[in-house]
User: Fold these one by one.
Assistant:
Number 1:
Amino acid sequence: MTFDPSISIAVLGGGQLGRMMIQSAMNLNLEISCMDPDPNAPCKNLASHFVNGDITNYDEVLAFGDVHDVITVEIENVNVEALEELERRGKKVFPQPRVLRTIKDKGLQKEFYLEHDIPTSEFVFIHSKEDLKDYTDLLPAANKLRTEGYDGRGVQIIKTEADLNKGFDAPSILEKFVDYAKEISVIVARNEKGEISTFPVVELEYHPEQNLVEFLFSPSEIDATIRANARKLAEKVITAFDMVGLLAVEMFVMKDGSLMVNECAPRTHNSGHHTIEGNITSQFEQHIRAILNLPLGNTDTKGSAVMINLLGHPDHAGTAKYQGIDEAMNITGMHVHLYGKKITKPFRKMGHVTLVGQDLQKLKETARSLKESIKIIA
Amino acid sequence: MTFDPSISIAVLGGGQLGRMMIQSAMNLNLEISCMDPDPNAPCKNLASHFVNGDITNYDEVLAFGDVHDVITVEIENVNVEALEELERRGKKVFPQPRVLRTIKDKGLQKEFYLEHDIPTSEFVFIHSKEDLKDYTDLLPAANKLRTEGYDGRGVQIIKTEADLNKGFDAPSILEKFVDYAKEISVIVARNEKGEISTFPVVELEYHPEQNLVEFLFSPSEIDATIRANARKLAEKVITAFDMVGLLAVEMFVMKDGSLMVNECAPRTHNSGHHTIEGNITSQFEQHIRAILNLPLGNTDTKGSAVMINLLGHPDHAGTAKYQGIDEAMNITGMHVHLYGKKITKPFRKMGHVTLVGQDLQKLKETARSLKESIKIIA
């Protein structure tokens, strides 16, 4: 077959995920256009065409997608109706709009799991804050906005009845806390031919308050059977969605070794950043391979890896400066990825660091001390 | 120390080397501007600022460099006088203009080796074609233009007296063929603090007619003492030049195990492309670290690697199409890098492929068959 790099790809969203996708797509001469509401989005100077626009607006998304061959996303909160119209016009839209419609609404997403016999935690629909008091038997629980939650926003923890007033007065779900042993993620890819490939399981450690991934460990140190089950479960989910593209499936490992799906993202994901240096094929290249119907790449690890999210210092906002990066560059196997964001804000995702080596325990120790020594201030 | 990514970097040249430098510089939020005479140069859409200009013109180079903090090159054939003026104005210019002045002239380069007791092959200066007939005792030999030779251009092989008419009627050198066992390359980096770091030795296999690297093998399979000597020799050369930046030192390994320097390039180099996936730090990141006076990265190999240059098919010129890339994507550890060139020409460097794995012999076999199956046609 002859590979024609002149195929044009449109990405809704122009943040760090789009930026790392462009970085990978350069290897295939692919030109990527991005649309983002932020005129200084991370992709601004790197996209072949950057459109400063509203990705939730029907007309803007339609006009943007209509001049490209393949349309994809780096965020779920996009105008699905426009993507459906683009699909009707014969464009390749991956993930498919119907998948985005289900996943972008945490309520529909949870219902989908129930319908497809995919294990997930107990939940109820909440229409307004008033409803919460009817479900105190579910506490402690997480109250999650059905739409527009992202990077720790749109989630409130309701531990006891005293916290009920923290809940959202908006369509949301209340999700019973599960007493899990570990949080893991499996990224799975599928192309139009129906080929499926999963990445090895990783473990996630969250920031205690911000609901943001703080550390990622690859490979996971869980039992081989559970690992195999997790990869099978991810395959089951992408098959159930009948989707093309990349799907990050976040799961809980329960104390009895069983698995529950926490949530999914039909795109490249924070839990796959380590794959750039840590795996044979990166999640960004795999996404491109999947949406262009190319053969999927081998996902094996090249060793152990720890990823650290670099978040804006809680007390700083303004033009970003990076303390401790120079010194960190002395560490063998340390790879820094800054996201091209001029302005830092408390807990804003400004970049990540991946440590690659053979001894996961040593990498974890290095990571915990590195986390303290790098500060993003204004 | 606080790392400030707002430092601005100017690159003279906007080809594949600049493009892969930008790809790496993205990880540090660094903005890179490029100047290139080709309005469709590979960096055009990826540089923060792309200036279509003449990099050999004093005024254009001065104006371009003057609005940046650090100036570097991806090709030697640039206006050195303008770089000297920029240096006088307090700009960081790495490699230093005096190094470029010596290296861009193959005659001065050879004289430099003699002066600094760096082993190199026997040569004479040629002023015009007429001179050649006085040096038939040097045959077989290579007649090389003193300046402007690049990628196989500017070199004529003079095997016997019958070939004398193929020689250049221009300032050139005539270099006696050396009966070497292998061609190798060592890339060495040096920062302003004087820290020096060499990459492991690689072996090069040239296209039989085009004087272009066809295959690169990493690590080299030569004796450990020769390897150590080669790294020491590269350190000696960069120290003799007292230069900051990256220096590729191409060498011959003689049949008795001694070394001769063939030629140098004070920049990222074709013999370092495999480092992107094959070594802990890539040559592109190392170059950036060196010119910004950051700590140099660890250069260890991550396994074995073979790099194949993808050259335009000898019978095709026009809009490039890539045969066999899809199929090649089934090979585990195959990484393709296309250079963003719309137009292919016979033997034009259009991209490269790196195969990474543990067994160098198997990688070599795969590489030789892959070389036949990928065709860049119009």
Note: Chain A has a mean pLDDT of 95.
Number 2:
Amino acid sequence: MMDQGTMENGVENVQRLPATDDEFGGVVVEMKEHMDSEVFHTLLKTSMSLWKLQGKKGVWIKLPIYLSNLVDAAVKEGFWYHHAEPSYLMLLYWIPETQNPIPGNASHIARVGAIVLNDKREMLVVQEKLGNLRGVWKISTGITHEGEDISVGVVREVKEETGIDTEFVEVLAFSQHHKVFFGKSELLFLCMMRPLSFDIKIQETEIEAAKWMPLEEYASQLSPQENGLRKYITELCIAKVDRDYSGFSPTLVTSYCDGNPSYIFLNKGDLNKQS
Amino acid sequence: MMDQGTMENGVENVQRLPATDDEFGGVVVEMKEHMDSEVFHTLLKTSMSLWKLQGKKGVWIKLPIYLSNLVDAAVKEGFWYHHAEPSYLMLLYWIPETQNPIPGNASHIARVGAIVLNDKREMLVVQEKLGNLRGVWKISTGITHEGEDISVGVVREVKEETGIDTEFVEVLAFSQHHKVFFGKSELLFLCMMRPLSFDIKIQETEIEAAKWMPLEEYASQLSPQENGLRKYITELCIAKVDRDYSGFSPTLVTSYCDGNPSYIFLNKGDLNKQS
């Protein structure tokens, strides 16, 4: 688990925690094996002295949840929490006196809302079993999974909640909301979807009811003072069906992050228009 | 710190952790005062037995970082990490045998990229000091802060990096990239910006150089095989300037989350077109 003491410049190095350098002048300690918390504390103190002498910047410690006995020692040495996932906790210490430039944890949930219209001008609507929209006919919505494309997540959500197969057409609009979930923000993408099947089979655990509702009936539920998303869902839907509204549709692009394919969503009609 | 034992149905309740009910049938333990970890462990065991009997669902424990001595006991009782911020760790236990329906932590960073064009068809470009785009002339980009609107974050980033004041016009396109930062995803919003000042003053710590570059010169940097974002930045820019490309512009809407004003970004020209 620990590096053996070695001779360097004629001085015997003390034992320290195993660490790898990162590309920003910092080190990453990824703990895997069980260790007594006092042994860990001693090694951490020694290692930190060494890294400070070496001019290291950020020091990361990744502790799997089965090493929760080591959290307290790291905090006592001045580390703070950077982020956590169910299986691990990531702690951080910034050595330089300059301000820590490391970005915080992820800040947004990506939610999708599905506007599914059949060719009878009917929209797919659901009533949820829980939450503050109980009893309201609304579009199917859900949170995208980690690593899931928006265009994939919205197809999955509609299928799960209503049993309807759909094809993603485009993003009609998006909205941003803050302090939605533990202080985090949300980006909600309203997606135009083409239905590929029509027989509804609801998800019993979360959905009370689902049906195809005439667009005009959906619109008639709104009060004249309505200025929420439901107003825009109605207007976008009518503009799309009757007036050729252009949203953003996906085009494959090489990601600047890792060179893998990603989607860029843009107004394809306008981009390809001839001048 | 703990509830006193009380008489209920003629039976004396044992001491338990202070908790409040949440709206989903669960309880929230928000620890604030220092406590010995063994005392906490005992109280947690007793409390969990009680909450199981009461049919509670999710049990949340929020531990401020100064109570890191209690993390290990909670994990030993079967809690896992839900999320962490610099100052606290949130742990979760799902009592029912059904699948835990609680959404995970935030999954996305919201990044903004600023396309700032002056009326000489010149684009504001920068070279960064660090990272894999060193030496490349690129648009100014940055990560929005917690709770910050996209349209505000992009103005701030341009100002910080180049000293240029700008006004947000619209989102020309957005792209989604996965596994960008500790497994998290990124949504990148390419924003059209109108410059309100023209004298560049760079941020010395992060930016090597900044200048106004003719659009055609920016385009000429790209190889014919280029299929990354830089190709679309060029094309979107030319489509916007020469062909009236419509992106998504912001309109105030009442948030469905909390009734506060939020922005919905949509194709305003198309939405307001007469049929």
Note: The mean pLDDT of chain B is 90.
